[in-house]
Amino acid sequence: MEKIVIEIDNPTAEEFKKFSPQTRSRFGETVAIALKKIINDATDENYKRFLDAISDEAQRNGLTEDILNDLLKADD
To answer: Are 47 and 38 in contact (CB under 8 A)?
Structure first.
């Protein structure tokens, strides 16, 4: 495997650093799978479907628009 660097906001990075090495590794594997899918399906329509699928999953896991807005405001 090869390492790449992806920039994220500071609060997210700080939260990520709190995870155990095993959990960070699992996150890395998950992101790698997602990136591979995005790259393999690199059309606008497929990308939109991918984002919709992520949105649906987040909603199933309890993320609401209000919670998302609170998280985004906390980043400011």
So the answer is: yes
